[in-house]
Structures are given as structure tokens and as C-alpha cells.
Amino acid sequence: VQLVEAGGGSVQAGGSLRLSCAAPNSTFSRSAMGWFRQAPGKEREFIAGISVSGERTSYADSMKGRFTISRDNAKNTVYLQIDSLEPEDTAVYYCAADVLFSTSIYIPEAAFEYDYWGQGTQVTVSS
Description:
By secondary structure, the protein is mainly beta. It has one helix and eleven strands. The protein has one helix at about 25-30; strands at about 5, 10, 15-20, 30-40, 45-50, 55-60, 65-70, 75-80, 90-100, 115, 120-125. The strands form two sheets. Strands 2, 4, 5, 6, 9, 10 and 11 form a seven-stranded mixed sheet that branches. The protein has a four-stranded antiparallel sheet with strand order 1-3-8-7, with no helix packed on it. It is globular. About 35% of the residues are buried. The mean pLDDT is about 95.
């Protein structure tokens, strides 16, 4: 299953980016979706997750406030809005899908719980 990410790039501190991740409908329609990031020399960390329906979201404590996850189930796409970017946000950002069932409200936060991953999109923030 291929997850296709887009929207990364180089921005100055204080700017915003919106990342997107598209998945096949057969997967997206029954998957909780998550966003992670990995900076050089650091472990992959959870940013945010969203339930299958989109009614529930979950954020890592350190990510609350500047990151917003959303999904458009008609477009089979999940988004991550990042505001007030900081140089410390520089990392490769990954989306992931955890295949559950269409009515699930569960949001996984551990990387090992996810079944499929995107290829990653680089975000570089300069000061």
C-alpha cells in the first residue's frame, strides 16, 4: 500500500506549511492516520493522529498548539498543518496508516502500531 506525501520544503522560521498524504481508498476508509517526524540523529516521534471518521484527534504533548491534523475522507487524504515553524522542526515528516475498521475510534500513538508508511517529506526551517 502506497502512501504519497507532499508539501514539504524549505521555509523561514515563523512560516507555515501544510503537509498532505494520500492513500488508496481501500486502506484510507478503515484506517486511523498518524504523522511522525524524525530529525537527524533522533528517534522517530509521534506528532498527531486522527481516527477513521476524523471525529477524534490526538497530539503529543510537545506538539499541541502549532500542529493540526485533519482528514478529508472524500479525497482519501490526511493533512498536517504546521504553524509558527521553528528551526527545531527540521526533520523528515512521515504519515502512517493503521488499518482498523470503519467505525473504530482508536488512535494509535506508537510507531509499531502502524501498518503502512509514506516515503517521508523533508521540512527544513531556517532561522
